[in-house]
Amino acid sequence: MKTKTIKSLISASELLSIYKNENVVLIDTRMGKDIKKTYLQEHLAGALHVDLNEELSDIKEDVANGGRHPLPSIKQFSKTLSSLGITPESHVIAYDDKNGSIASARLWWMLKAIGHKNVQVLNGGLKEAVKVGFPMSSNIETPKSVAPYYIDSWKLPVATIKQVEKISKDKEYLVIDVRAKERYNGEMEPIDLVAGHIPGAINVPFSSNLDENGLFLSPKALKEKYQKVLGPRSAKNVIVHCGSGVTACHTLLAMSYAGMEIPNLYVGSWSEWSRNDMPIATIKTSNNP
């Protein structure tokens, strides 16, 4: 029997109607100082928390080695999924409080990358759930006890720093930097050591995937937008990056929601590139003489 393909995003009202289903696993991916305390004070009823730094990344002592949020090993990710009660049959729904731009899109990408079928991000996140009256909780949630989730490899394409260096100025390829314009231009850099961008990369901020209410644009609008950006290039010739391989997933999510093929993710992103003596470009603006 053919598996039904589900949309990459789910609305708060849709979530409200299905969250009690047996196979649904709701994941809170919010970040911040004392996030576990914040989560325990209030979260969507039934939601388990996952930590970007501790569970969705394998952070190295030297950030030059893979950037600020390198992917965990397949074995590590398998353990994380099993600890959350996730099986290959689970319908995983992730949410955050940043319109999907932090760890919910990253978790979505990681699950898609291992071939998981049913995974969605809550469109509009926590704010939209509250709007529709989704029940909140301060309970300590207990995941289901499940068998180990077998994973053999990452199946979605990823790019290495060497690959990005090789193709960054090749017109047949396209490198998309999804960070804010000011960071791309080199006007400011709040997180990494050096400001600027990868030479040849274009800037399409992930925030442009959203409307004025913090919801994703329609699939049609997103498709028109990214078809124009990509031009004649196929997804295999497109590399998307951000600061550390997290918000880039927001753009990959948007493209998937638009029905497009998911391009390459450069996980190391600017945090790795800028720490490896690689060439750096900046753009002079009226505010940056």
Please explain how this structure is put together:
With 289 residues, the protein is of the alpha/beta class. The chain is 29% helix and 12% strand. It has helices at 12-18, 35-41, 52-55, 74-83, 103-113, 125-131, 161-167, 181-185, 219-230, 248-257, 269-273, and strands at residues 9-10, 24-28, 43-44, 48-49, 91-95, 119-122, 136-137, 174-177, 202-203, 238-241, 264-265. Strands 1-6-5-2-4 form a 5-stranded parallel sheet. It has a 4-stranded parallel sheet with strand order 9-8-10-11, covered by helices on one side. Strands 3-7 form a two-stranded antiparallel sheet. Strand 8, helix 8 (181-185) and strand 9 form a beta-alpha-beta unit. It is globular. The N and C termini lie far apart (62 Å).
Helices and strands, with pairings:
Blueprint lengths: L8 E2 L1 H7 L5 E5 L6 H7 L1 E2 L3 E2 L2 H4 L18 H10 L7 E5 L7 H11 L5 E4 L2 H7 L4 E2 L23 H7 L6 E4 L3 H5 L16 E2 L15 H12 L7 E4 L6 H10 L6 E2 L3 H5 L16
Parallel strand pairs: 1-6, 2-4, 2-5, 5-6, 8-9, 8-10, 10-11
Antiparallel strand pairs: 3-7
Helix pairs in contact: 1-6, 5-10
Question: Could you give a quick summary of the protein structure above?
Answer:
By secondary structure, this protein is α/β, with parallel strands linked by helices.
Features:
289 residues; alpha/beta; 11 helices; 12% strand; globular
Evaluate the radius of gyration.
19 Å
Biggest beta-sheet profile: 5 strands, parallel
Percent strand equals 5-15%
Question: Which sequence of strands runs across the widest sheet?
Answer: 1-6-5-2-4
Task: Compute the number of strand runs.
Answer: 11
Structural class by secondary-structure content: alpha/beta
The assembly state of the depicted protein chains is single chain
* Overall spatial form: globular
Task: Please tell me the overall pLDDT.
Answer: 95
* Helix fraction bin: 25-40%
Number of helices: 11
CA(first)-CA(last) distance: 62 Å
